[in-house]
Amino acid sequence: MHKSTISFFYEDINFKLLNKDKVKLWLLEVAKMHHHHVSIINYIFCSDDYLLNINKTYLNHDYYTDILTFDQSDNDEIEADIFISIDRVRENAAAFHHIYEKELNRVMVHGLLHLLGYNDQTEEEKQAMRETEEACLSLPQLK
Q1: pTM over 0.90
Q2: How far is CA 119 from CA 50, 103, 112, 128, 130, in A?
Q3: Which residue range forms the structural domain that includes residue 86?
Q4: Which of 18, 46, 75, 137 is packed most tightly, with the most Cβ within 10 A?
């Protein structure tokens, strides 16, 4: 099995992820619990406008979103680029009265869960996704 790499990049925003090592270990543990191995995941933190441009360019969607996941995985080897709008995460945290850091972690694991096979198209899938996100957020690696 190859080495796991989770990297964090920043585009057009003044933002730095805190506790990078702890977050990496947590995300790797989530993948391991779901019997997957992370090869490479690049998390790219950006603004609403940056992510809107990607959404329009690559998906023909003309709306803001908090996350876009581009999966290049092969079997159980996860490889992906995950773009996260810090503007949207901040807005959603305020709108839903969530702690900002918890909302950011929720969005990060949400992208990973998509790579692990979770979907959120139907109400049942959305419910399963939420329950799994909450279970992941309560893992000791994140504490």
Answers
A1: yes
A2: 24, 19, 11, 9, 11
A3: 5-142
A4: 46
